[in-house]
Design goal:
By secondary structure, this protein is of the alpha+beta class. The protein is 53% helix and 13% strand.
């Protein structure tokens, strides 16, 4: 994760805009998962007033059945843990730069999630990643 963040930060310094592609491409199983989780379905942004990070997974916008037919629950858990670690590293760097502790708020946007007919494996991977991240 650190190598991908450093690459993104170097590109940021060059053009003044954060580039998330090196980070997305370095994620575990990115070659499969990034086909299903795009930057409109899995979003990290900053609050303008505090610079705190907001990480939102728009689960209802994801083809969860298609995704979970290609990866295992463990692979998704690894992906989500990677995302959480990246956000933690960015928050740490920004906290040092601003001399203020930044928070990370994680949101699971469940609008449009199919509780019947959707992938229970996808929901299980979200839950398992949250549990592991908080252990």
């Amino acid at each position: 994760a650190r190598t991908a963040i450093n690459a993104a930060m170097m590109q940021t310094a060059e053009n003044g805009k954060f580039n998330n592609e090196p980070i997305r491409n370095a994620a575990p199983n990115a070659n499969i998962i990034n086909e299903y989780l795009t930057t409109t379905q899995c979003i990290t942004t900053s609050l303008p007033t505090t610079n705190d990070l907001i990480y939102c997974i728009r689960a209802g916008k994801i083809d969860d059945k298609g995704l979970m037919s290609k990866v295992s629950i463990d692979q998704m858990v690894d992906f989500f843990l990677y995302c959480k670690e990246v956000n933690a590293m960015v928050a740490d760097m920004r906290s040092v730069q601003s001399d203020a502790l930044l928070k990370i708020v994680t949101c699971n946007d469940l609008k449009g999630v199919k509780l019947v007919g959707g992938s229970s494996d996808f929901r299980a991977s979200l839950s398992a990643a949250s549990k592991k991240a908080n252990d």
